[in-house]
Backbone:
């Protein structure tokens, strides 16, 4: 491994600053709060912290709508606080990666304020401005320049009354898309990135970065089943025509000469394994790894709010295919949840009281033993669960609020809309971090901006750190294994028993060492010599293997029947 591939042995911890730790009692997490918890992160053993956006922002999408890339929102602190965070993190051997949101800005960013001020403003072309569709008058239904649906419901175009033209916003109306075709835009973004690196940060997590190149003729998309007046624009802006050119240009302009110490991860919805190889082949100088969504899309039906329990066979097939495809060239991120996803233990494990701890540990074991860089999302290391939201008012996220408004406005059944939200809302991931059993889980002395999960008295960091058998200490151990067992970062991956409904099993092999991971994704016992496993799970030679780590204490034998939600890592 060359030095610039250090991230293969690293584990990233994602902080959603709003919900992590409040230090001043305003109910919103902040940078000094993060600093006060660095010892906790050091104890967990993570190598990198990725911060969701803390820049100046009207907070329409909780900071993913940026009004000033080179300042910190007063809610979160100051630039001096960030400098202090970087210094204190570095002193603990932790790198700090910032979110880079440059597919769009806030509509309150000075660039957009200028751009919208007149048709001949020099920054007009920094965004996507178009006249009404031919034969239509601006403002009438269907007059939008394309039929694209926004990710946050409704059309992706907004009419600006002042100039009578529409601007494109793939996300909210307050998140206009930047026009990357314009070289001035690209230069301004690169200069801002260099400024941050000069300040001492260690890289970027690049928000929806595979959307920055659009097909410039902006064709209509195929009409959507649920909202046929709107269309799917994604083929015209996901992995668009100039995306590789833009990323290579960015690499040359920003990272050249200092890339080896940094981390760059591209958040890329709809990326295929073939694209991922191109994005992450080190020779091509684009990004270090992708953050892809295939495995978190398997339980989603016709639309985002139509969810069912994932079929384990599909999950194994998807993750396994990514393992195989990137075996020689390229690199992937590994994650079960982030700030946009429901809580992993509720979704892929079991949050029933008798299984929560075991299944949370099982999920950590399985994920971290794959090839790729694992991400731990705040609270995952405690086995934090989805939140029992009571009513529509509990949902605060713009995506959830818009869905509720449109679906209930169209006469949808309110109870089923709420049920969908409880399963799929991003608010599940954004409830306050559960630090201890004091009021508001120790997150704030004020009133938290988002509802605290009532289970904090049982599930919290103080209790977990004090209990050697907790989910926290299990995560600490799997993280440590990545640093000490080269087969985990570098070994070959081989999936076993792909068609079994509840067993997740695979080997990792490297320089004469073999690891076997066995995990029972069910609340019943799993006999490893039982039906459905003949010929697909050969345990010869594993009977006397060493147990590297298990989640339910020492089994009677390495290959003994797996207990409910039991996971073992064997070594020989
Ligand atoms: C992806 C981010 O993860 C999400 O939280 C955000 O809403 C969109 N990009 C828009 O920036």
Residues:
């Amino acid at each position: 491994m060359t030095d610039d591939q250090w991230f293969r042995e690293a584990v990233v911890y994602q902080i959603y600053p709003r919900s992590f730790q409040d230090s001043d009692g305003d109910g919103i997490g902040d940078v000094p709060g993060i600093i006060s918890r660095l010892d906790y992160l050091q104890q967990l053993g993570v190598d990198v912290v990725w911060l969701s956006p803390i820049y100046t922002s009207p907070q329409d999408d909780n900071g993913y709508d940026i009004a000033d890339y080179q300042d910190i929102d007063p809610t979160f602190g100051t630039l001096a606080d960030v400098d202090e965070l970087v210094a204190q993190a570095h002193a603990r051997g932790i790198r700090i990666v910032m979110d880079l949101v440059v597919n769009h800005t806030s509509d309150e960013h000075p660039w957009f304020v200028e751009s919208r001020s007149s048709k001949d403003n020099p920054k007009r072309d920094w965004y996507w401005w178009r006249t009404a569709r031919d034969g239509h008058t601006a403002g009438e239904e269907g007059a939008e320049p394309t039929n694209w649906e926004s990710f946050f419901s409704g059309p992706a175009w907004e009419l600006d009354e002042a100039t009578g033209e529409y601007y494109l916003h793939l996300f909210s109306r307050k998140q206009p898309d930047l026009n990357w075709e314009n070289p001035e835009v690209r230069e301004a973004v690169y200069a801002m990135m260099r400024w941050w690196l000069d300040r001492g940060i260690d890289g970027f997590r690049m928000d929806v970065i595979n959307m920055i190149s659009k097909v410039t003729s902006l064709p209509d998309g195929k009409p959507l089943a649920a909202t046929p007046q709107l269309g799917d624009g994604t083929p015209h802006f996901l992995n668009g025509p100039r995306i590789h050119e833009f990323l290579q240009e960015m690499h040359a302009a920003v990272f050249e000469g200092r890339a080896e110490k940094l981390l760059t991860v591209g958040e890329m919805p709809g990326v295929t394994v073939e694209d991922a190889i191109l994005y992450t082949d080190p020779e091509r100088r684009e990004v270090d790894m992708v953050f892809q969504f295939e495995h978190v899309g398997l339980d989603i039906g016709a639309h985002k709010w139509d969810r069912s329990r994932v079929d384990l066979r599909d999950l194994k097939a998807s993750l396994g295919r990514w393992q195989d495809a990137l075996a020689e060239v390229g690199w992937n991120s590994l994650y079960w949840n982030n700030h946009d996803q429901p809580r992993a233990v509720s979704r892929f494990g079991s949050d029933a009281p008798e299984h929560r701890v075991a299944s949370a540990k099982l999920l950590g074991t399985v994920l971290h033993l794959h090839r790729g860089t694992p991400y731990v999302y705040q609270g995952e290391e405690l086995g934090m669960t989805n939140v029992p939201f009571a009513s529509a008012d509990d949902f605060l996220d713009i995506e959830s609020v818009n869905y509720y408004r449109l679906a209930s406005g169209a006469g949808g059944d309110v109870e089923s809309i709420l049920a969908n939200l409880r399963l799929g809302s991003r608010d599940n991931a954004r409830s306050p971090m559960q630090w201890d059993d004091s009021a508001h889980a120790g997150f704030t002395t004020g009133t938290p901006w988002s509802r605290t999960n009532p289970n904090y008295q049982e599930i919290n960091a103080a209790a977990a750190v004090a209990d050697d058998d907790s989910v926290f200490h299990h995560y600490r151990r799997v993280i440590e294994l990545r640093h000490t067992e080269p087969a985990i970062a570098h070994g070959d991956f081989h999936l076993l028993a792909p068609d079994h409904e509840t067993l997740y099993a695979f080997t990792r092999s490297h320089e004469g060492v073999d690891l076997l991971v066995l995990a029972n994704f069910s609340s019943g016992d799993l006999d490893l010599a039982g039906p459905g496993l003949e010929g697909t799970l050969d345990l010869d030679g594993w009977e006397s293997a060493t147990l590297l780590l298990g989640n339910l204490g020492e089994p009677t034998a390495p290959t003994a029947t797996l207990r409910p939600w039991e996971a073992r890592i064997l070594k020989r």
Summary: The radius of gyration is 24 Å. The pocket of 1-deoxynojirimycin is lined by residues 61, 64, 101, 171, 207-208, 267, 339-340 (CB under 6 Å). The first strand starts at residue 12 and ends at 15. The mean pLDDT is 97.
